[in-house]
Amino acid sequence: MTAFSFACTGVRADQYAAGPTLVFRLRVTASGDTPVHALALRCQIRIEPARRGYGSAEADGLADLFGERSRWGSTLQPVQFAQVSVMVPSFTGETETDVVVPCTYDMDIAATRYLTALTDGEVPLLLLFSGTAFTGAGGFQVEPVPWDREAAFRMPVATWREMVEQHFPGCGWLRLPRDAMDALLAYRSRHALPSWEATVQALLDGADSPAHDPLRALTALTATTGRTDP
Predict the structure, then answer these.
(1) Surface-to-core class of residue 229, CB atoms within 10 Å of its CB (0-12 exposed, 13-18 middle, 19+ buried)
(2) Single pTM value for the model
C-alpha cells in the first residue's frame, strides 16, 4: 500500500481568472518507488480561527460570526472555505501541482465575512484530502487515499485582499433579494440617478431627518406593489 503525504507550499491570486480565484501550490509525496499513474483527490479547505490572534478592530468585525470575545472559547469553530477536486498527473516519489480554488465575495458566506474582517497577518487553513490513487509498475492497482491525510497552511491576508482588489477594486459586494433589487431599480429610474452608488446615497442622505428612515423606506418599497418614493 502506497503512503501519501501532502504539504501546501504557497498560494497566489490568479490574475487571469474570470472571477476571484486562489491557486494553492501542493506538494504530493508517495512512499517507495512505485509509479503513481494518476491521483484523483478531493480537497476540503477549512479556516481554523482559533489558531491566530485578533486585534480590536478584527474582533468587532467578527462579532456577527463568533459573538463577543468573551465567548470565543466555545464559538471559535472551524469555518468551511472550499471543496474542490484535483487530478494529479503521473509521478514517482514526489511532485507538485496546483489546486485551483474559485472564491466568492458574497458577504452572506461565513468564510467571506471572516476574511474581510481581517486586517493583516495570516489565515490559518487546514487542507483535508481523500481520493483514489492508480499505482503499479507494469499494470494498474487502485488504492484509496485515507481520510486522515491533511496539511496545515497559513495564507497571507494580503493574498486574499489582492485577489479581491483584482475583481472588485475599491468596492464591496452586497446580495439583495430580487424584490429589493426591483424596488431599488424602480427608485433609481424614477429619480434618474446615474449609478447604484448614487441610488444608495440618495436613500442614506435622508437618514438625519427624523421623518425619513431609509431602512423603513426600503422595506415599504419591497412590501407593496404600488411602491412610493421614500
Answers:
(1) exposed
(2) 0.79
